[in-house]
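Sample A.
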Amino acid sequence: MSRRVRAPSPRWETLRDQQEAAVARAIIAIVAEDPSRLTVAEIAQRAEISRQTFYKQFVTLEAAVAATQGRVIAVLGSRIADVATTRPAANGLERLLQIQEAAFEVFTADPAMLRFTSFYDFSFRVHRMSEADREQHPLAPSPEGDAGLYELIRAGQRDGSIDPDLPVEATWRALSTSILGVIQRLQIQDDWTDGRDEAARETFATMLAVWRRTLSSS
């Protein structure tokens, strides 16, 4: 007779989510301060959990860092959804640029999150993850599919707001790379994340204006 496996209780699910959130906050804080201190012991201490509890939630340190990146992506997705609800875009072009503006606002409000994302993309995935892990944990949600970012470009091309001759994949790669690059560069060269640096906002607005002219079909 097979043994029946109980489903986790709601209370346990809540506790697990709280612990995972605490681990994510700890990882982001450690990376913002000094990535060389990113160890299970340091994370557990910051998250106020035991090492044993850490390993109950995550198989490896790499899994915990990847899960943290997933939470960052979820925050971005939630912010983008909020903007779309409160300020509907007129066409595909404006929707595409609206997403970049939302990312700028998220990272402005939480510079440690930007530092973590940069670390994850350019250092951790390259030097700490195996090829199999990298395939399992991509940089971001796939831009393909009906609800993906490629589709936003296609939608703009269909509604006439984006040049129909632009190649979809190359256009998205160029747009996302340049926009994120500007955000990262502003952070490196200036303390713009205090919310008072209008020069940073002007720089970002200029970049969006350049892309609006580049993408526009008119």
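Sample B.
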Amino acid sequence: MKIEQIYTGCIAHAAYYIENNGEAAIFDPLREVQPYIDRAQKDNAKIKYIFETHFHADFVSGHIDLAKKTAAEIIFGPTAKCGYDCTTAEDNQEYKVGNYTIKVIHTPGHTLESTCYLLTDENGKQHGIITGDTLFIGDVGRPDLAQALVEDLTQDKLAGYLFDSLRNKIMPLSDDLIVYPNHGAGSACGKNMSKETTDTLGNQKKTNYALRADMTKEEFKAELLDGLTPPPAYFPQNVMMNINGYESLDTILKKGDTPLSPKEFEAIANQTEALILDVRNEAEFVKEHIPSSIFIGLHGQFAPWVGALIRDTKQPILLVTPEGLEVETITRLSRVGFDNTLGYLKGGLTAWKSGGFETDTIDSISPEVFASKYENALVVDARKPSEFKAEHVESAVNIPLDYVNEQIAEVPKEDTFFLHCAGGYRSVIMASILKARGYHNMINVEKGMAGIRTTDVPLTAFVCPSTLK
């Protein structure tokens, strides 16, 4: 069977392309749709259907733009209600793409409309199943993202629905089916996803905690809900865009791809209260940046960090980018619903300084210098709690970057402190946020924990009291 996974690592997202006999279908497309159109043209195929597994929370799907450009039909599963032209399929309904058959399998739980698509080849053999956020490799979808959309809907109810969907709809299927999920490791839509992006259903039945045959519904719910962290703030906003519709990406790019002189850039920043977003690498930002700008490097998990740390998708944004990456930056912002880019600084920091404008820096030291100064000093670890528990600098405090907005009161205000993460990316993001809010008492540790481990700084791990003798 001709099926291709189109994986985008920065948001751990998988779209799928299938083609047979001159007809094609796309599953869960990203916002930029031209690559899917180009792929179909390479096969001299017409995109007939756009299948959506659910209303996504972690990205804005490209289904609306793709439908407008190809006249393909948008298909959602049962109970879905769109603010644009789409088809709501029935459970077990079948669609033909060439000689392939796509069967709708309604699997509520992650969301109420969540649907999987069973793929059967031209010989009538069941080949695989596109599972969306119902079933990942090593995990299943979190059941707390759709609560706000339906009155009296709780994560406990959704977890119960997901248990039934998995047991009654997915697990009875053939072990040799290939599972094609919507996300891999790094996505916030689950908590235990594998780095692998496909597997057989049979192996998942053996290895995925959520598919244990002897698990009761209550045990399933307890394990699924344990350790769930709050979803990023942009998730509900993305859901509504996917339900109600959005502006074409072409329009977003036309508005955002606007070069601005330093004077124009500063004027717009003052007039609109735009956030200045610097997407260069952390070393460049540490060395010099526009005062009060926020760093989120394009080379890391850019879009998820933007979504987690910038609260409102309507926030006006001005960009400082490496030359030639302006359109890529605007596109990647749009993937998570940030469509209000007003332009970018033409000529970057070189033009900014030539125009007589000031720059700022972040105090930053090597791991070796940190090793000579850390004793009796305040150390803030910006990594996730799980990383901190596994290993951390003795006496360090954990203020995860994910929750810096909520926990900013815990950041030392007077005394100088050292700030680090795993490799140096997250700590610079956090330092930029703190500087923009008036904190100037932090020193960044380059290379983070990866560098600290090469020194003689003593490290320790959290020990659960229940394990102590």
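B remarks: Residues 99 and 122 are 5 Å apart (CA to CA). The two ends are 56 Å apart (CA to CA).
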